[in-house]
Amino acid sequence: MTKGFAATSLKDIADELGITKAALYYHFPAKADLARGVFQPFIDDVDAVLDELDGRRLAPEDVLAAYAGALLPHRTALAATLRDPGAVADLDLEGASVRWLARLSALVGHGEATAETRVRTAVAVGGLTRALVLPEMADERALAIAVEAAGAALGRGTTAER
């Protein structure tokens, strides 16, 4: 699908998959349903991981590693959202991102999501999320490096504490 989600028809998708358009329509009556089927699982997985972490007092790097671990199996879908934001127009990915950032800020700040924690978490999570779609992420060492770099973006303590 090189022409983007909006310009790609269900027939194009069916042809690419080698199935009939009717078979595709049976499972996905509209393109929005197909998009939800592809992208909703990674939203659900991140929400589930954050639910598991809620209330726990973990090292920030452990929180970031859990977040990365939830997204890693969905690298292809994640990359598609970065390449073609129109593909997720029917999903509230922006709302999910805002929700995740608030929850991650609270987790890495151990319940105190100060302005500095929120900014540092946004930088850390943004960089980590973007790194997850790099080809290098097939190597476990690269993932550890990405989590370490994201942890470094969080810094140690607030500016006032330094």
In short:
By secondary structure, the chain is mainly alpha-helical.
Notable traits:
single chain; 162 residues; mainly alpha; Tetracycline Repressor, domain 2; 0% strand; elongated; disordered C terminus; HTH_TetR; transcription regulation; TetR/AcrR family transcriptional regulator; DNA-binding
Commentary on this structure:
The chain has a single domain (32-161), classed as Tetracycline Repressor, domain 2 (Orthogonal Bundle), CATH 1.10.357. Helix content is 66%, strand content 0%. It has helices at residues 10-17, 21-27, 31-53, 60-71, 75-83, 93-108, 115-131, 140-154. Helix 7 runs antiparallel to helix 8. This is TetR/AcrR family transcriptional regulator. Residues 1-46 form the HTH tetR-type domain.
Mean pLDDT: 87
Q: How would you sum up the global shape? A: elongated
Poorly predicted sequence stretches spanning 5 or more consecutive residues:
157-162
Total strand segments: 0
CATH topology tier name: Tetracycline Repressor, domain 2
Any idea how many domains?
1
Main β-sheet: number of strands, strand sense, barrel status? none
CATH class descriptor: Mainly Alpha
Pfam family, one: TetR_N
Domain HTH tetR-type: 1-46
DNA-binding region: 9-28
Protein name: TetR/AcrR family transcriptional regulator
Task: Summarize the topology.
Layout: H1 10-17, H2 21-27, H3 31-53, H4 60-71, H5 75-83, H6 93-108, H7 115-131, H8 140-154
Protein name: TetR/AcrR family transcriptional regulator
Keywords: DNA-binding, Transcription, Transcription regulation
InterPro entries: DNA-bd_HTH_TetR-type_CS, Homeodomain-like_sf, HTH-type_TetR-like_transc_reg, HTH_TetR
